[in-house]
């Protein structure tokens, strides 16, 4: 009975899009597997994600771990404030998350090892769907309330080896895990005559992935990054029984970073993922994303600016939803360089299938180097 109820819930979500939206991480994550994470530290995110492929405290590329010269730990916190519109209704949403924690450090010689967790897919939402059912020949109004609270988490163990000052190779092993609390409630308008129905269960996730990356420095101040990641599938279970299984994409990308002077760094990156292999979860699209950004100044209070854009893999329309983000940030060190506080802000707009989402993301990051 539980499996049937949750299967029906999944079917309803697949056809209804974001109608009756109350709260969620992103309206463009309901119909598919969820809204993808960014894998970026606050410093890299503040540059539009352009520095992510070159940042050892981000989890996108394993070769970037080579920049970690001593034991380092970093944590990220974000708060977002959004307004969503489906052409008829508009809602204000807010969420708080801790999407990433990374720890890394040199082991011996030219080997650096790191690991931690980051959010692979956001799976939180709450929606309401009004309806009418005929009971004993009379129409009765009701509201169905469906919710999910959770995420798919990427646990990573990675290493980077410096073959020379100009060439670094990295690799990683990823375990996808996590869970979401699922709720389904039917509330009748005439609650004195009819009992409300409620169903609660927990859905757990598992999957595996591997990643490879290369970081090259062909010229002084010029760095090139190439990366590849392959994830096998995402399996979902409810009460010990498999409720769904979907293929996951292969991701490939590259980036370039140029240190113009010690106080001026600029970078750009492009990433492609074939999310269409996940179409069993609903309509899914291949995505290409890009980012451009820079960091100006060094030490305390540098200025970081960036822009990112591209497609999202899931949405209600016939084409992939698009997103555009503009970000800025800064940071400062304390305790003689043993600690770093980074702050950032991003304005993000997503649109597709007649839906729009505008919002602000506030970021804070703490890095500790004992």
Task: Explain what the structure shows.
Helix content is 5%, strand content 65%. With 370 residues, it is mostly beta strands. The chain has one domain (2-368): Outer membrane protein transport protein (OMPP1/FadL/TodX) (Porin, Beta Barrel). A hairpin with a 2-residue loop joins strand 4 (90-108) and strand 5 (111-122). Residues 1-23 have low confidence and may be disordered.
Largest sheet: 14 strands, antiparallel, barrel
* Proper CATH architecture: Beta Barrel
pLDDT average, as an integer? 89
Number of domains: 1
Helical run tally: 2
Helix content bin: under 10%
CATH class: Mainly Beta
Q: How much of the sequence is in beta strands?
A: over 45%
- Gyration radius over CA: 22 Å
Coarse morphology: elongated
SSE diagram, text form:
Blueprint: H1 2-16, E1 21-24, E2 35-36, H2 42-46, E3 72-85, E4 90-108, E5 111-122, E6 125-135, E7 138-164, E8 167-188, E9 197-219, E10 222-231, E11 233-238, E12 241-247, E13 250-261, E14 264-273, E15 287-296, E16 303-311, E17 322-334, E18 339-352, E19 355-368
Antiparallel strand pairs: 1-6, 2-5, 3-4, 3-19, 4-5, 5-7, 6-7, 7-8, 8-9, 9-10, 9-11, 10-13, 11-12, 13-14, 14-15, 15-16, 16-17, 17-18, 18-19
